[in-house]
Design brief:
eight-stranded parallel β-barrel, alpha/beta, about 325 residues
Protein backbone atom coordinates (compact mmCIF):
# COMPACT_ATOMS: atom_id res chain seq x y z
CA UNK A 1 0.00 0.00 0.00
CA UNK A 2 1.19 3.45 -0.87
CA UNK A 3 0.40 5.38 2.33
CA UNK A 4 2.15 8.43 3.66
CA UNK A 5 3.68 7.40 7.02
CA UNK A 6 3.14 10.93 8.32
CA UNK A 7 -0.62 10.80 8.01
CA UNK A 8 -2.20 11.55 11.36
CA UNK A 9 -4.80 8.81 11.31
CA UNK A 10 -2.33 6.03 10.53
CA UNK A 11 -2.06 5.90 14.31
CA UNK A 12 -4.78 3.74 15.79
CA UNK A 13 -5.22 6.23 18.65
CA UNK A 14 -6.18 3.45 21.03
CA UNK A 15 -8.78 1.74 18.83
CA UNK A 16 -7.96 -1.70 17.40
CA UNK A 17 -10.43 -1.00 14.61
CA UNK A 18 -7.95 1.56 13.25
CA UNK A 19 -4.75 -0.44 13.56
CA UNK A 20 -4.67 -0.28 9.75
CA UNK A 21 -6.24 2.19 7.32
CA UNK A 22 -9.97 1.49 7.17
CA UNK A 23 -12.17 1.40 4.08
CA UNK A 24 -15.89 1.88 4.70
CA UNK A 25 -19.04 1.72 2.61
CA UNK A 26 -21.01 4.92 3.15
CA UNK A 27 -24.60 5.23 4.32
CA UNK A 28 -26.64 6.73 1.47
CA UNK A 29 -30.38 7.10 1.90
CA UNK A 30 -32.32 5.29 -0.78
CA UNK A 31 -29.16 3.83 -2.28
CA UNK A 32 -27.12 1.64 0.09
CA UNK A 33 -30.13 -0.19 1.47
CA UNK A 34 -29.76 -3.76 2.82
CA UNK A 35 -29.89 -5.32 -0.66
CA UNK A 36 -27.27 -2.97 -2.09
CA UNK A 37 -25.08 -3.47 0.99
CA UNK A 38 -25.28 -7.22 0.52
CA UNK A 39 -24.25 -6.96 -3.14
CA UNK A 40 -21.43 -4.45 -2.69
CA UNK A 41 -19.93 -6.08 0.39
CA UNK A 42 -20.01 -9.47 -1.35
CA UNK A 43 -18.17 -8.06 -4.36
CA UNK A 44 -15.54 -6.50 -2.11
CA UNK A 45 -15.07 -9.76 -0.23
CA UNK A 46 -14.78 -11.71 -3.48
CA UNK A 47 -12.08 -9.29 -4.66
CA UNK A 48 -10.06 -9.96 -1.51
CA UNK A 49 -10.49 -6.52 0.05
CA UNK A 50 -13.66 -6.59 2.15
CA UNK A 51 -15.00 -3.39 3.66
CA UNK A 52 -14.00 -3.00 7.28
CA UNK A 53 -17.61 -2.09 7.98
CA UNK A 54 -20.58 -0.30 6.49
CA UNK A 55 -23.09 2.07 8.07
CA UNK A 56 -26.85 1.75 7.69
CA UNK A 57 -29.12 4.32 6.14
CA UNK A 58 -30.20 6.71 8.87
CA UNK A 59 -33.03 5.71 11.18
CA UNK A 60 -34.98 8.82 12.10
CA UNK A 61 -35.72 9.35 15.80
CA UNK A 62 -38.60 11.70 16.54
CA UNK A 63 -40.98 11.13 19.45
CA UNK A 64 -40.39 7.77 21.09
CA UNK A 65 -38.22 4.69 21.26
CA UNK A 66 -38.73 2.92 17.99
CA UNK A 67 -40.07 -0.64 17.98
CA UNK A 68 -37.77 -3.50 17.06
CA UNK A 69 -39.35 -4.02 13.64
CA UNK A 70 -38.20 -0.55 12.54
CA UNK A 71 -34.59 -1.35 13.37
CA UNK A 72 -34.90 -4.72 11.63
CA UNK A 73 -36.40 -3.03 8.55
CA UNK A 74 -33.41 -0.74 8.12
CA UNK A 75 -30.82 -3.19 9.44
CA UNK A 76 -32.00 -6.77 8.83
CA UNK A 77 -28.36 -7.74 9.37
CA UNK A 78 -29.17 -7.53 13.10
CA UNK A 79 -30.65 -11.00 12.61
CA UNK A 80 -27.22 -12.18 11.45
CA UNK A 81 -24.93 -10.88 14.19
CA UNK A 82 -25.12 -7.42 12.54
CA UNK A 83 -23.20 -8.63 9.49
CA UNK A 84 -23.95 -8.98 5.80
CA UNK A 85 -23.92 -12.45 4.27
CA UNK A 86 -20.25 -11.92 3.33
CA UNK A 87 -19.35 -11.00 6.94
CA UNK A 88 -19.13 -7.20 6.79
CA UNK A 89 -20.25 -5.55 10.07
CA UNK A 90 -23.07 -3.01 9.84
CA UNK A 91 -23.12 -0.05 12.22
CA UNK A 92 -26.49 1.50 13.02
CA UNK A 93 -26.92 5.18 12.16
CA UNK A 94 -29.44 7.37 13.97
CA UNK A 95 -30.70 10.84 13.07
CA UNK A 96 -32.53 13.21 15.38
CA UNK A 97 -32.24 16.31 17.54
CA UNK A 98 -33.49 15.26 21.01
CA UNK A 99 -30.52 14.02 23.03
CA UNK A 100 -32.45 11.83 25.48
CA UNK A 101 -34.53 10.17 22.76
CA UNK A 102 -31.42 9.56 20.69
CA UNK A 103 -29.76 8.00 23.73
CA UNK A 104 -32.71 5.74 24.48
CA UNK A 105 -32.95 4.57 20.88
CA UNK A 106 -29.21 3.96 20.72
CA UNK A 107 -29.37 1.86 23.86
CA UNK A 108 -32.21 -0.20 22.40
CA UNK A 109 -30.35 -0.66 19.10
CA UNK A 110 -27.46 -2.07 21.12
CA UNK A 111 -29.83 -4.47 22.87
CA UNK A 112 -30.87 -5.68 19.42
CA UNK A 113 -27.24 -6.33 18.51
CA UNK A 114 -25.86 -3.12 17.02
CA UNK A 115 -22.04 -3.33 17.15
CA UNK A 116 -21.67 0.47 16.98
CA UNK A 117 -23.81 3.60 16.82
CA UNK A 118 -23.21 6.36 14.27
CA UNK A 119 -24.93 9.74 14.54
CA UNK A 120 -25.93 11.61 11.40
CA UNK A 121 -25.08 15.32 11.29
CA UNK A 122 -24.48 15.35 7.55
CA UNK A 123 -27.73 14.68 5.70
CA UNK A 124 -28.47 17.69 3.44
CA UNK A 125 -32.07 16.76 2.55
CA UNK A 126 -34.49 19.67 2.96
CA UNK A 127 -37.19 17.50 4.52
CA UNK A 128 -34.72 16.27 7.14
CA UNK A 129 -33.20 19.69 7.84
CA UNK A 130 -36.62 21.34 8.14
CA UNK A 131 -37.39 18.94 10.98
CA UNK A 132 -34.14 19.87 12.72
CA UNK A 133 -32.18 16.80 11.73
CA UNK A 134 -28.97 16.07 9.86
CA UNK A 135 -26.69 18.86 8.69
CA UNK A 136 -28.80 21.73 10.07
CA UNK A 137 -27.42 20.84 13.51
CA UNK A 138 -23.95 21.87 12.34
CA UNK A 139 -25.14 25.36 13.20
CA UNK A 140 -25.82 24.15 16.75
CA UNK A 141 -22.58 22.52 17.97
CA UNK A 142 -23.86 22.59 21.55
CA UNK A 143 -26.76 20.34 20.50
CA UNK A 144 -24.34 18.04 18.71
CA UNK A 145 -22.38 17.77 21.94
CA UNK A 146 -25.53 17.02 23.94
CA UNK A 147 -26.60 14.27 21.54
CA UNK A 148 -23.24 12.52 21.22
CA UNK A 149 -22.46 12.66 24.92
CA UNK A 150 -25.96 11.40 25.85
CA UNK A 151 -25.63 8.49 23.44
CA UNK A 152 -22.13 7.74 24.70
CA UNK A 153 -23.41 7.55 28.30
CA UNK A 154 -26.39 5.39 27.32
CA UNK A 155 -24.67 2.59 25.42
CA UNK A 156 -22.29 0.00 26.88
CA UNK A 157 -18.68 1.13 27.15
CA UNK A 158 -17.43 -1.49 24.70
CA UNK A 159 -19.74 -0.30 21.90
CA UNK A 160 -18.27 2.58 19.87
CA UNK A 161 -20.17 5.80 19.20
CA UNK A 162 -19.20 7.85 16.15
CA UNK A 163 -20.43 10.92 14.31
CA UNK A 164 -20.68 11.80 10.62
CA UNK A 165 -20.60 15.48 9.69
CA UNK A 166 -20.08 17.93 6.85
CA UNK A 167 -17.76 20.93 7.03
CA UNK A 168 -20.65 23.19 7.99
CA UNK A 169 -24.18 24.13 7.06
CA UNK A 170 -24.13 27.22 4.84
CA UNK A 171 -20.38 27.80 5.26
CA UNK A 172 -17.38 26.64 7.29
CA UNK A 173 -17.35 29.40 9.92
CA UNK A 174 -18.38 27.03 12.73
CA UNK A 175 -15.69 24.41 12.10
CA UNK A 176 -13.76 25.23 15.27
CA UNK A 177 -16.92 25.05 17.36
CA UNK A 178 -17.91 21.77 15.74
CA UNK A 179 -14.45 20.32 16.36
CA UNK A 180 -14.54 21.39 20.02
CA UNK A 181 -17.99 19.86 20.47
CA UNK A 182 -16.80 16.57 19.00
CA UNK A 183 -13.66 16.63 21.15
CA UNK A 184 -15.67 17.04 24.36
CA UNK A 185 -18.46 14.63 23.48
CA UNK A 186 -16.75 11.26 23.86
CA UNK A 187 -17.12 10.25 20.22
CA UNK A 188 -14.84 7.34 19.32
CA UNK A 189 -14.18 8.55 15.78
CA UNK A 190 -15.39 11.10 13.26
CA UNK A 191 -16.31 10.82 9.57
CA UNK A 192 -16.25 14.03 7.52
CA UNK A 193 -17.91 14.62 4.17
CA UNK A 194 -15.66 17.37 2.85
CA UNK A 195 -18.38 19.80 1.75
CA UNK A 196 -20.94 21.99 3.44
CA UNK A 197 -24.64 21.32 3.25
CA UNK A 198 -25.01 24.19 0.78
CA UNK A 199 -22.34 22.67 -1.48
CA UNK A 200 -24.37 19.46 -1.61
CA UNK A 201 -22.71 16.92 -3.88
CA UNK A 202 -21.29 19.38 -6.40
CA UNK A 203 -17.55 18.93 -7.13
CA UNK A 204 -15.06 19.52 -5.77
CA UNK A 205 -14.80 18.13 -2.26
CA UNK A 206 -12.56 20.22 -0.01
CA UNK A 207 -10.42 17.45 1.42
CA UNK A 208 -7.79 19.85 2.74
CA UNK A 209 -10.28 21.32 5.22
CA UNK A 210 -10.45 17.97 7.00
CA UNK A 211 -6.98 18.86 8.31
CA UNK A 212 -8.74 21.22 10.73
CA UNK A 213 -10.04 18.18 12.62
CA UNK A 214 -6.79 16.23 12.79
CA UNK A 215 -5.93 17.70 16.18
CA UNK A 216 -8.66 15.52 17.66
CA UNK A 217 -7.46 12.56 19.71
CA UNK A 218 -9.69 10.22 17.74
CA UNK A 219 -9.43 8.76 14.22
CA UNK A 220 -10.80 10.87 11.38
CA UNK A 221 -12.33 9.31 8.25
CA UNK A 222 -12.48 11.24 4.97
CA UNK A 223 -15.47 11.07 2.63
CA UNK A 224 -16.66 12.80 -0.51
CA UNK A 225 -15.91 12.82 -4.26
CA UNK A 226 -13.78 9.65 -4.32
CA UNK A 227 -14.47 8.06 -7.70
CA UNK A 228 -11.04 6.60 -8.52
CA UNK A 229 -7.83 5.34 -6.98
CA UNK A 230 -6.13 8.60 -7.93
CA UNK A 231 -8.77 10.64 -6.13
CA UNK A 232 -8.48 8.36 -3.11
CA UNK A 233 -4.75 9.00 -2.94
CA UNK A 234 -5.27 12.75 -3.36
CA UNK A 235 -7.89 12.73 -0.64
CA UNK A 236 -5.58 10.97 1.81
CA UNK A 237 -2.74 13.36 1.04
CA UNK A 238 -4.82 16.53 1.29
CA UNK A 239 -6.89 15.49 4.31
CA UNK A 240 -4.04 14.06 6.35
CA UNK A 241 -5.90 10.86 7.14
CA UNK A 242 -5.49 7.39 5.67
CA UNK A 243 -9.05 6.33 6.54
CA UNK A 244 -11.67 6.54 3.78
CA UNK A 245 -15.42 6.15 3.43
CA UNK A 246 -16.48 5.35 -0.14
CA UNK A 247 -19.92 6.47 -1.32
CA UNK A 248 -21.31 6.97 -4.82
CA UNK A 249 -17.99 5.98 -6.36
CA UNK A 250 -18.33 2.54 -4.80
CA UNK A 251 -21.77 2.11 -6.36
CA UNK A 252 -20.58 3.28 -9.78
CA UNK A 253 -17.47 1.09 -9.64
CA UNK A 254 -18.12 -1.77 -7.21
CA UNK A 255 -14.43 -2.72 -7.51
CA UNK A 256 -13.25 0.72 -6.34
CA UNK A 257 -12.29 -0.59 -2.92
CA UNK A 258 -9.88 -3.07 -4.54
CA UNK A 259 -8.36 -0.32 -6.70
CA UNK A 260 -7.87 2.29 -3.98
CA UNK A 261 -4.67 0.79 -2.60
CA UNK A 262 -3.41 -0.45 -5.96
CA UNK A 263 -2.92 2.71 -7.99
CA UNK A 264 -0.71 0.88 -10.49
CA UNK A 265 -3.74 -1.04 -11.80
CA UNK A 266 -5.98 2.02 -12.09
CA UNK A 267 -6.60 1.35 -15.78
CA UNK A 268 -7.46 -2.28 -15.20
CA UNK A 269 -11.05 -3.31 -14.55
CA UNK A 270 -10.78 -5.59 -11.55
CA UNK A 271 -14.46 -6.41 -11.91
CA UNK A 272 -15.45 -6.85 -15.55
CA UNK A 273 -18.96 -6.30 -16.84
CA UNK A 274 -19.29 -10.04 -17.30
CA UNK A 275 -18.31 -10.55 -13.66
CA UNK A 276 -20.91 -7.98 -12.62
CA UNK A 277 -23.81 -9.59 -14.47
CA UNK A 278 -24.46 -12.19 -11.78
CA UNK A 279 -24.51 -9.56 -9.06
CA UNK A 280 -27.00 -7.45 -11.01
CA UNK A 281 -29.27 -10.45 -11.49
CA UNK A 282 -29.05 -11.19 -7.79
CA UNK A 283 -30.12 -7.61 -7.14
CA UNK A 284 -33.10 -8.00 -9.49
CA UNK A 285 -34.06 -11.24 -7.74
CA UNK A 286 -33.98 -9.54 -4.36
CA UNK A 287 -36.93 -8.77 -2.14
CA UNK A 288 -38.88 -5.52 -2.34
CA UNK A 289 -42.41 -4.28 -1.81
CA UNK A 290 -43.12 -5.03 -5.46
CA UNK A 291 -41.47 -5.36 -8.85
CA UNK A 292 -41.99 -1.69 -9.63
CA UNK A 293 -39.88 -0.69 -6.62
CA UNK A 294 -37.18 -3.24 -7.38
CA UNK A 295 -36.96 -2.32 -11.07
CA UNK A 296 -36.81 1.36 -10.15
CA UNK A 297 -34.00 0.70 -7.69
CA UNK A 298 -32.11 -1.36 -10.26
CA UNK A 299 -32.43 1.37 -12.90
CA UNK A 300 -31.02 3.84 -10.38
CA UNK A 301 -27.99 1.57 -9.97
CA UNK A 302 -27.65 0.93 -13.70
CA UNK A 303 -27.73 4.66 -14.34
CA UNK A 304 -24.78 5.05 -11.99
CA UNK A 305 -22.96 2.09 -13.55
CA UNK A 306 -23.02 3.90 -16.90
CA UNK A 307 -20.27 6.13 -15.50
CA UNK A 308 -18.04 3.12 -14.94
CA UNK A 309 -18.94 0.63 -17.68
CA UNK A 310 -19.57 1.22 -21.39
CA UNK A 311 -21.72 -1.91 -21.46
CA UNK A 312 -24.03 -0.31 -18.90
CA UNK A 313 -24.65 2.60 -21.27
CA UNK A 314 -25.69 0.20 -24.02
CA UNK A 315 -27.94 -1.77 -21.69
CA UNK A 316 -29.50 1.40 -20.33
CA UNK A 317 -30.49 2.42 -23.84
CA UNK A 318 -32.34 -0.86 -24.36
CA UNK A 319 -34.17 -1.22 -21.03
CA UNK A 320 -34.77 2.31 -19.74
CA UNK A 321 -38.51 1.99 -20.45
CA UNK A 322 -38.77 -1.69 -19.53
CA UNK A 323 -40.86 -2.44 -16.41
CA UNK A 324 -40.66 -6.22 -16.34
CA UNK A 325 -37.71 -7.43 -14.29
CA UNK A 326 -37.61 -10.82 -16.04
CA UNK A 327 -37.18 -8.99 -19.34
CA UNK A 328 -34.40 -6.91 -17.81
CA UNK A 329 -32.66 -10.07 -16.58
CA UNK A 330 -32.89 -11.48 -20.13
CA UNK A 331 -31.37 -8.27 -21.50
CA UNK A 332 -28.58 -8.48 -18.94
CA UNK A 333 -27.71 -12.02 -19.99
CA UNK A 334 -27.85 -10.99 -23.65
CA UNK A 335 -25.42 -8.12 -23.02
CA UNK A 336 -22.54 -10.60 -22.74
CA UNK A 337 -23.52 -13.00 -25.49
Amino acid sequence: MNHNPNLQADQNLGSPLFANPVRLLAPMEGLTDPLMREILTQIAADLGRPYDWSVSEFIRVTQHVLPAHVFYKYVPELHNNAKTASGTPIHVQLLGSEAQLMAENAAYACELGAPAIDINFGCPAKTVNSHRGGSVLLDEPEVMYDIISAVRRAVPDHIPVSAKIRLGYTDTCRMDDIRNAIAASGSDWLTIHARTKTQGYKPPAYWDKIQNFNTLDIPVIANGEIWSAEQAQNCMTQSGTSHLMLGRGAVTRPDLIALVDNKAVEDATTLSWTDLIGHQIKFLEGTAKNDVVLVGRYKQWLGMLTKGYNEAQTLWGSIKREKNRVAIIDALNASVE
